[in-house]
Every structure is written in C-alpha cells, then in structure tokens.
Amino acid sequence: MVRRDERAEGAGPFTTRVTWRKAEGGLAVWESRPARKRGVFRTLAESGAEGAPHRADGRALHRLRTLNTVAAVAFVIGGGLFALGALLAAVTDVGPTAIASVFFVGGLFFNTGGYASLLQAVNAPRRSGGTDAPVTRAWRWWSYEPQRIDWLSTFVLFAGTLVFGVNLLDSFLQGLSVRQTDRLVWAPDMVGCVLFLISGHLALVEVCHGRWCVHARGIGWWIVLVNQIGSVLFLLSAVAAFTRPETGSPVNTDIANWGTFAGALCFSAGGVVQYFERP
Length: 279
Fold this sequence. Notes:
Elements: E1 6-11, E2 14-21, E3 27-31, H1 32-38, E4 40-44, E5 54-55, H2 58-91, H3 96-122, E6 126-128, E7 131-135, H4 149-170, H5 178-208, H6 219-240, H7 253-274
Antiparallel strand pairs: 1-2, 2-3, 3-4, 4-5, 6-7
Helix pairs in contact: 2-3, 2-7, 3-4, 4-5, 5-6, 6-7
C-alpha cells in the first residue's frame, strides 16, 4: 500500500522503488534489490545530496550476509562444474556417465544457489509505515509472494534449477530412443533455460525500475547482466542439442558444448561478483 506522501516506481504490477518524506526532513528511498541484498534504505537531504543510509539490525544483516555467501559460492562452483562437464564433452573421450556425473553435481550447487537466493527474498528487511528504517521479521523457510518482483525472480530461478535437475537425472538413462531423448533430456533443459531467462528479465526490471538502463557503477546491474548473458548462451546450447529424428544426431554438438561452457563461466563470474554485493 502506497501512502499519499509516497512516490512509487516500477513496471506493471511490480513496485521496485518507493520514495517518501521523513518526519525530520529529507527523503527515504526503498529499492528492492539493495534492501534484499544489503539491508539498507537510502536517504536524501533536502538539497538532494546522498545521506547516511538506514540499515537493518544486526540480525537481519547477518542473515543476508550468510545467504549471499552461500548463493555466491554455490553459483561459482556450480558454474565451474558445468564448464568442466562441457569441456570434457568437447575435447575428451570421457564416457557419457562421467560427464553426466559432473553436470549432476554442478546442478546440485545450482539448486543450492537458487534456494539461497529465494531465502534472501523471503527474509529481506521490509518497509513499515511507522518507521523509516528496515524492519526485520521472523525467519521463514518459505513464503508465497508473487506480487513482489524480487520473490518472483528468485522463485523462477530456483524452479529453473529444479527443472535442470530433471534433465541432469534423465541424462543418466541408457538406451533411449531419439524421441525419448528429446522428451526426457532435451525438453527439461529447454524449460530450465526459459525459466532462467524469465528470472533474469525480472531481475533487470527490478534493477532498472521498469526501464532499460545502464548502471556501469552498479554492482547489481553487472551481476544481472552477466547472468542474463549466461542464460542466453544456455538457451542457444539447448537449441543446438536437440536430437533430430531423421538423423539421430544433435543439431550442432559444438554449439551445444561451447555454449554451455561459456554460459557456465558467466554464472561463475556472476557468483564471484555477487559475493561482494552484501551488507
């Protein structure tokens, strides 16, 4: 609910930034990503100069710092293992079971990173009408808040990692026909890639408040951009991995392998930078 003295910004049904006047003068600014990642609300003096931010309490900051570290490390390792699996498939004669095992372990790390990201959104400090500072709520392992763009983006990301898990499990199956391979292995891969793209788009909307933007000095913008490039590369690799019924071979094995390799490196790089986006 936005009060009369508040100005809300965002896209569609989503609010990504709210500005309101403080009782003692000046403005307070809530932005979805900084509140979720750093536990801060910005402040502006009457002159427009940046003031000292309002920070959440120590308990909330400890939560955000811990969850951010778990997510960042998980994406670095998961991306690294995906890159390793793609490299083994492209330049070695390692058997498919060994390669599938590397991808599967990497997928578990992606699952962990996705869920930690969702927990950040679930437990992010909130706005309260009675105070200008972030309010810490009781810890929760789950919530259902699709009206919040940060929750929806991280939920779709986590769902994408789970769908990838189906693809990675099915890749262990032997003796599949071409149609079974496309249905059990390729189709979940495509769904996961699309979910990653949707999550990345929502994250861009959150960072840019509904408009295309370039925030070269914003660490969050760089993280989202690099991850979205990785998602596009994953999608290209998935399209190239489709097994054509008439030939029984993938559309383009090189694109499938090297697209996965490059996309995985993007997620690893995003994880490294994400480590520093913390309270």
